Amino acid sequence: MKGKQILVVDDEPKMRRVLEILLQKMGHRVLGAGNGVEALALFQANSVDLVITDLRMPEMDGIELLAALRAQASEVPVMVITAHGTIETAVAAMKHGASDYLLRPFDIDVVELAVARVLNGAEVARQNAFLRQEINRGWDAFIGTSQPMQAVYELIQRVGPSKASVLITGETGTGKELAARAVHNASPRRDNLFVPINCAAIPADILESELFGYEKGAFTGAVKERIGKFELADGGTIFLDELTEMPMALQAKLLRVLQENTIERLGGNRVINLDLRVIAATNRDPLEGVRGGKLREDLYYRVNVFSIELPPLRKRKEDIAGLVEHFIAKHGHSTADTKLAPGVLKRLEEYAWPGNVRELENMVERALILSGGGLLKEAHFLLEPKPAEIMLKTSSSLAEGSKTTPPLNQAVEDLEARLIDEALTQAEGNKARAAALLDISERTLWYKLKKYRPDQNPS
Ligand SMILES: Nc1ncnc2c1ncn2[C@@H]1O[C@H](COP(=O)(O)OP(=O)(O)OP(=O)(O)O)[C@@H](O)[C@H]1O
Ligand SMILES: [Mg+2]
Predict the structure, then answer these.
(1) Which atom of ligand 1 is nearest to the CA of 355?
(2) Distance, CA 310 to ligand 1 centroid (Å)?
(3) Ligand 1 pocket, Cβ-based, cut-off 6 angstroms
(4) Which of 46, 94, 154, 228 could pair with 212 as two cysteines, CB 3.0-4.6 Å apart?
(5) Residue 208 bridge partners (DSSP)
(6) pLDDT, tens digit, 9 for 90 and up, residues 293-332
(7) Which is the closest atom of ligand 1 to the Cα of 326?
(8) Domains and CATH numbers, the chain
(9) pLDDT for 1-22, tens place per residue?
(10) Cα dihedral sign, 313-317-321-322
């Protein structure tokens, strides 16, 4: 148990002192208060991991203090001090939510054990709540024996045991998060938490408090302290997904955390030491991110101590058959009865898979629903030609059809307009899907439609 901050409340300074010395010897920091009112003030001003309070005190007794803490929605563990012959009051305190009691006179070993148990319990409760969410997500093991994937497995096994930061790159759906978890599992940190945080999915203004946590009263609405993801990952691994989507100002703070291995919660001034391993991922080219001002160069070098690039599925077609089987089983069908119809595997291998393994899984799931199991036929899959294929078709007809070469700008615009038309036809007019096919944002599509097809009045 690392050093924690413990608030000791007792109206008798001598008694307080005994406990303070004991706790300090255990490696904890101690704040002392002479009564409940003073204790509440200290509690509000500091980040406190445990409160140990005497029960009989003037002004505000132990039970009242406990009630006041709970009224603030604080879950901080509270231990009460009691003397022989007054154990009933300690039991009453526990009915009011105290975690345990300490019997006076103190026995060093008993105090040490009880405090460790209560602090541990608080930690375990916090980790459990997190683990429950994590386990529900059900992570796969890696499937695929292709040469490029074997190279990936070897890198994971090599870098896993070290403390090196790792940068994982690869297109969407190639298994970057799976790889990050595999690195964590191959490390001595595997019994501590793997804490993923998706920088793109969390609004910029919330991201900082998610990472750093905050003290009570740090801002309006911070009614109780909150532990951040960095602290949660202490001793384990923090996975910063979509790193290039993290605001630049926050990237600077992240860099400082990585260099100094410490954080301060928002609105606090206590320095918290951490033992973190960082794995970051991006589906963009990180160097392009650096050039485009989306990724700090110093941070890039800091996280890119070791890099792993996940190959796109189209470059390891030999893995497709195994993956299909895996997903058939994963979605509750027997691979003995449910198979690809003849010729379908070849079609799957020819397809470009812009969404990679995730797209394959979704497509298999869809095919299973459509077929109800049994033979999975080509019609059960949604193998749309990709923009690249449309482009090839379109540009060759352009080249054949025209004797004179049009001005480049004009030619590009013609091609763009035709690609958009084809994508819209294919997407049956659904603009979100058409934009996805073209790998542009809906906003860009909307803008281009206004330019090329003003009559269609895009909305
Ligand atoms: N080789 C693989 N074997 C089995 N399942 C895989 C494999 N690669 C990816 N998956 C599965 O595909 C899904 C997508 O993987 P993951 O979330 O790791 O991709 P990603 O690269 O992080 O994607 P994104 O960039 O979109 O976040 C997950 O459900 C994962 O379990
Ligand atoms: Mg991911």
Answers:
(1) 26
(2) 10
(3) 139-140, 142-144, 170, 172-178, 283, 326, 357-358, 361
(4) 228
(5) none
(6) 999 999 999 999 999 999 999 999 999 999 999 999 988 8
(7) 4
(8) 5-133 (3.40.50.2300), 151-309 (3.40.50.300), 313-380 (1.10.8.60), 387-456 (1.10.10.60)
(9) 568 999 999 998 888 888 998 8
(10) negative
